[in-house]
Amino acid sequence: DVNLKMPRNNQLLHFTFREDKQWKLQQIQDARNHVSQAIYLLISRDESYQFKTGAEVLKRMFAPALPSDLLVNVYINLNKLCLTVYQLHALQPNSTKNFRPAGGAVLHSPGAMFGALSGWR
């Protein structure tokens, strides 16, 4: 589960990872296959092909879907499963950019990480 409280409207947003979309550490084992498949899909398209929507490129991993101005990045850093949330918004031409990352470690268990990785061969 992911709970976010956004400063602009002070509303608490609640999301869960979809059960039909894998996100667990087992994906590391399949990373090469996913990259190979992505390369194949890109190569098999005509060079002039233009993606029409973001949905063609991005598969949604949350239920309900995140608001269009939020980006969530889940990644592994050393022995931690990390989650970073970005809020996107359009800038006026004369404005400055403010970058305030919000995130933290979702899993910090060296033993669990080692046990999961040692089983993959």
Automatic annotation (TrEMBL):
It is found in: Cytoplasmic vesicle, Secretory vesicle, Synaptic vesicle. It comes from the Eukaryota. Pfam families: Rogdi_lz. Its main location: cytoplasm. One of its GO terms (cellular component) is RAVE complex. Belongs to the rogdi family. This is Protein rogdi homolog. It comes from Pongo abelii (Sumatran orangutan).
